[in-house]
Every structure is written in structure tokens, then in C-alpha cells.
Amino acid sequence: FGLLSSLSPPPRCASTSRMCTLLRRFRFSKSLRARGHDCYRQQRYYSALDHHNDNHNGEGLPFGIVLAFSACGMSCLLWTAWPPRRGTLAGSQPTEDETLEATLKLLQAGTPLGSAGEAARELLFVDFGSGDGRVVSAVVRRFGCCGIGVDVLPESVAEAQAVVAAQLPSELAGRTGFMCADMADIDLNDADILFMFLPELMTRQVVQTLLPSSNLRVGAYVLIEDAPEALRHGYGLRHMMHGGVKPTSARHPALDLFEWRGSAFDDQPASSPFFT
């Protein structure tokens, strides 16, 4: 997985070593769980199929097909009439160039990446849902750190690898890697900064469920583009800085920088004694 096997050997430093460790951990954990996951998926599929056959005995299939096509048609009409609101999609919507520049400024001002010299090069930046790799590429180019992108779509990983190979000098390209993987399979123990631009529901799921079990160390930074308002208080996150293109819009969502304090950390505002 990733770029490490196809590019020239990266410079030896602590962050490059940790990047390789993260990649190895993913491969090892995936190999251990692959058979169990496959059996589980197969069992769920056949159980659902048997349940459907028992309940319907083959009847109602034409109606189901008609209903599916009707739902798709209605979704297309609604998408055209009312574009998605803020926080409802990311995925195919990449970080815009202006927001990407604001992201770099926020990382410069609010994280150790802003320190000049070897300190920045020792850090590991991870992008959940990296898409075409533009954020990883820009961060590695600006700060010289190591960067890893994680995306579930093979075509996105291939595009990101091509972008990095074309846009970065070989030394910096060797400090990047991309994994086609489920975010839940990634051990974040070696990550210093985590970035994500995901649909709102997925962002909530990652923060509330995935991060507490990801081994992300206390004190690591989490930068979220288009963060749900509720995440600014609690859920293991301590809000540090707010940024982004002004004014914010669906095309240029806000940026929020957090410090990960662990799942036990609660930063919920105290309620008024008059309403307890």
C-alpha cells in the first residue's frame, strides 16, 4: 500500500520511520482481520437473503425495482433544486485552493509545523479521506513533514499517487504515502496531526467512535474542515483555533483546530444553575 515501494527511499528520520510503522501496522492488522471480516460480510449477506426469501417468497420484486428507480429519480430532482447544505458532503468535493491555503496558515500558526527546521520534519500528518491527495501534497511541500493519505476508493489513491509524483520533488515525494483502507483499520499512534473533510454524519462517527479506539495519542492535533458545531465542546476535543476563508460558504467551509485530549475529556459548557 502507498507510495513507499514505488519511489526512491525517503530520507531517514524519525517521522519517516513512524510513517513506515503506521503502514506496516495497517497491513498487519488487516491481514489478521481479513478472513473474519469476509466471513462476517458473507454471513450477513446470506442471512439477509434468507430473511428476504422467507418473508416474500419471490413476490414483490418488480415493485422493489420500481421503487428504487423512483427514489433515484426523486434524489436527482432534489439535488438539482436544493444543493447540499453546509456539512452534508465532502468526499467528491475537494478542499478548494483558497481553503487549502487557509489550512496551511492555520497549521503554521497553531501547530508545531510552524516551527522552522528539523522539528517540523519530524512530524507525521495524516489525512482521513485524502481524495486526490492535494492536502497531503500541499502540507508536505510547505513544511517538509511526512504525510499519509487514507482513502477507501482505489481510484482516489491512484490519482493521489500520480499527483504527488508529478508535483513534488523526489525527496518530498518519498515522504508521502497513500493507503486504500477503511479509516477504522488505521492505528493513529504515530500521528501528530490528523486532518479530515468528511460528510457531517461521518465526521461525528469518526470523532465519537473511531478516534477513542484509534490509539491517537493525547496532545495530537485534529484539524477539521466543516466541523459540526457540536464537536466544538467535548467528545475528547479541546477547541484551539478557528479559521478559513471569510465569509464561510458551502464552497469554503470553516476550519477548526482541536487538541485531542482523550475520550474521557469533557469540555461541555457548564449549564446554568437556573435550568438544572
Structural key phrases:
44% helix; globular; disordered N terminus; disordered C terminus
Structure, described:
The chain has 276 residues and is of the alpha/beta class. Helix content is 44%, strand content 14%. It has helices at 14-56, 61-81, 97-110, 118-121, 134-143, 154-167, 170-173, 200-210, and strands spanning 124-128, 146-151, 176-180, 193-196, 221-225, 233-234, 237-243, 255-260. The chain is globular, with a radius of gyration of 21 Å.
User: What is the structural class?
Assistant: alpha/beta
- What gyration radius follows from the Cα positions, in whole Å? 21 Å
- The number of E-state strands comes to 8
Q: Helicity range of the residues?
A: 40-55%
Order of helices and strands: HHHHEHEHHEEHEEEE
Mean pLDDT: 76
Strand content: 5-15%
Strand order of the largest sheet: 3-2-1-4-5-8-7-6
Largest sheet: 8 strands, mixed
Instruction: Determine the N-to-C terminus distance.
Output: 53 Å
Overall geometry comes to globular
Number of H- or I-type helical stretches: 8
Low-confidence stretches: 1-12, 28-56, 78-91, 269-276
